[in-house]
Amino acid sequence: MDRPKDNKADYTALAGGLTGCITRFLCQPLDVLKIRLQLQVEPISARSEISKYRSIVQSVGCIYREEGLLAFWKGHNPAQVLSLVYGVAQFSFYERFNLILRDMETFKGHDLARHFVCGACSGSFASLTIMPLDVIRTRVVSQDPGKGYKNAFTAVGTIYRVEGIRGLYRGMVPALLQIAPLAGGQFMFYNLFGSFVRRLEHLDENTTLPPTELLLCGGLAGLTTKLIVYPLDLAKKRLHIQGFSQNRQTFGKHFVANRLFQCLYQVCRDEGIQGLYKGLNPSLLKAAITSAFYFAIYDRLLLVFNSGFRKPD
Q1: Among 67, 108, 193, 312, whose Cα sits 20 to 30 Å from the Cα of 132?
Q2: Are 260 and 173 in contact (CB under 8 A)?
Q3: Higher-confidence position of 191 and 264
Q4: If you average pLDDT over residues 167-176, what whole number do you get?
Q5: CB-based contacts of 170-173 (< 8 A; 24+ apart in sequence)
Q6: Is the Cβ–Cβ distance between 191 and 118 less than 8 Å?
């Protein structure tokens, strides 16, 4: 990810956008499963008789029986646009900001700190850009069959008309609190693990690693950072569905909270500390797979674009 200065980042936006689209399609079923489990107030336990979803296997079977195979790609269209915009915004901002900071005296000899700051800033910028799409995606995934929004276009109009601009930015505070350490940590840990692998194999720091090792470094980076910020992701999803209870009547008790700290407090009070980690298993699996593919595909695409479309001297 940390490239030589003479390697112009002409194709970062294209590579980032394509990477986001590919990984979103592959990981959308895990995202649907994660969101359903995050939003359930009742216990996620095989012993619970009042819970709609009781385990990962049971949840997969339940969604398939009730809604069919395509239900695992619910909300895919806004999610795909979300991934495209996020990938373009994050990676293009990261690469350009990284070029600026690497020449600053403050960050010389502090590569990990530079990667963290660049990742945090680029992630925050990208998160603000796609926030309305994230709200729409969450609601489409969590709505009853045949209810709610027909598509993303009607969702935008309905949310703005009924809830105002605030409705399109529900959950913004936990999103920003989460994304800065998440994105910064992913870039930092990815480069940290990559440097460690290069030292083990006695490779130059600017050498692009093979696909298998890129997948491993990206997966470990995703797992590490997701564990740190997961409760904020759960709070964000719960705030996304405020004012949407009439369209999700078949999913059990509706969670009501207006602010981040109120949301976290109510989850701990009513569902225990473990409630902050509902949906963690599919989320970790998704985080590992997404980060692994994200970084591996991005690095490979950027290498292909820069070598295949390089202008003649």
Answers
A1: 67
A2: yes
A3: 264
A4: 90
A5: 170/135, 170/239, 170/240, 170/242, 171/131, 171/134, 171/135, 171/235, 171/236, 171/237, 171/238, 171/239, 171/240, 172/128, 172/131, 173/259, 173/260
A6: no
Tell me, what's the pLDDT at 5? Answer: 46
Closest CA to 277 of 224, 225, 220, 233: 233
Tokens coding 165: 């601009």
Q: Choose the weakest-confidence range: 46-55, 121-130, 302-311.
A: 302-311
Q: Which residue has the tokens 């990206």?
A: 218
Contacts of 97 (CB under 8 A, 6+ apart): 118, 121, 122
What does R_g of the chain's alpha carbons equal in angstroms?
20
Pair 143, 33: CB distance under 8 Å = no
For residue 270 the two structure tokens come to: 């009513």
Length of the chain: 313
Secondary element (H or E) of residue 292? helix 280-308
**140 closest CA partner among 236, 279, 69, 35:** 35
Place of tokens 């990990």: 112
Cα dihedral 152, 34, 185, 20, rounded to 10, equals: -40
Structure tokens at 233: 């992701």
Identify whether the C-beta of residue 26 lies closer than 8 Å to the C-beta of residue 73.
no
Q: Assign 3-state DSSP to the chain and report helix, strand, coil percentages, each to 5.
A: 75, 0, 25
* Angstrom distance (rounded) from CA 308 to CA 241: 45
- Label residue 2 by pLDDT band (50, 70, 90): low
In 3D, which of 80, 249, 78 has the Cα closest to residue 148?
A: 249
